[in-house]
Design a protein that fits this description.
Blueprint (H helix, E strand, L loop, with lengths): L6 E7 L6 E3 L4 E5 L6 E2 L10 E6 L2 E6 L7 E3 L2 E2 L2 E3 L5 E4 L2 E7 L6
Parallel strand pairs: 3-4
Antiparallel strand pairs: 1-2, 1-11, 3-5, 5-6, 6-9, 7-8, 7-10, 10-11
Amino acid sequence: GAVKVRGYLVCNEGTAREQTWPLERSHFLIGKDQDADLHTAGVFAPRLAAAILREDRGFRALDLSAKGNALQVNGALLDECRLNDGDTLQVREHALVFRHGRHRED
């Protein structure tokens, strides 16, 4: 059978600190929109700031903000990039770590 790629986001900082989200659907949305999976605060926060997209061979992060300044990966402001295990993402007030593979509690 096909091997299903597993991905997780772990929040280290922000209002959702210490939460973990399995990336099981085709996309995970971050922003202040009511449909977002992870909500951001602030009057000037974009409705949709960023998305994590599931692809055949892994995951990709995408900046959805109009100004293109909502997503940092490993400290660099990026429009989009492929995610690797251990990558750090900063989206507004949320500091996240992308984990790939099996989830284990430390």
